[in-house]
Design a protein that fits this description.
alpha/beta
Length: 164
């Protein structure tokens, strides 16, 4: 399926290696990126793709400490790759220094499935995630949406401060 992010996102001006297409919003205090990659599942795990995508984004877009980078990604495969259960490991549960991976959509053309994994809280790129997952559903894909749980520190602090 052709990935069409919300109109507010513009094509990334720099080349991202590894066959990754990207769209971004860049303002004074935030940088949000949607990355899309189509790949074969042969010989690679989801963890391999997550690591390669993070590295390619870091090297080509060079997020800095003043303005980090919020990342959402769509990975399209011909069939679901081995290690699909590892997708949640790539989603960040806390703010990170440079790149915060907020969500991922894994889609399989053969199985006609799109799985959405999102961080536990509503973030800058949540609306793009919801729109893209809905577009898969409208295209006839079976979709499922999951949230990554808070890590133990964030869960404790949320309870202790009454934010939960």
């Amino acid at each position: 399926m052709q990935v069409q992010p919300p109109e507010i996102y513009k094509p990334v001006s720099r080349n991202i290696p590894g066959g990754i297409n990207g769209w971004e919003i860049r303002t004074f205090n935030r940088h949000c990126v949607i990355a899309e990659s189509t790949a074969s599942a042969d010989g690679f795990t989801v963890g391999d793709y997550l690591a390669n995508t993070r590295r390619a984004i870091r090297e080509s877009l060079r997020p800095n400490f003043l303005r980090g980078l919020a990342l959402g990604t769509v990975l399209e495969f011909d069939r679901l790759p081995p290690g699909i259960e590892g997708i949640a490991d790539g989603i960040d549960r806390q703010q990170r220094e440079r790149i915060v991976w907020q969500w991922a959509i894994i889609a399989s053309k053969r199985e006609n499935i799109a799985l959405g994994i999102h961080t536990w809280m509503h973030v800058y790129t949540t609306s793009a995630f919801e729109l893209l997952l809905a577009r898969y559903q409208l295209s006839g894909y079976q979709t499922a949406n999951f949230k990554v749980e808070k890590d133990k520190l964030v869960a404790f602090l949320s309870r202790a401060t009454g934010l939960e």
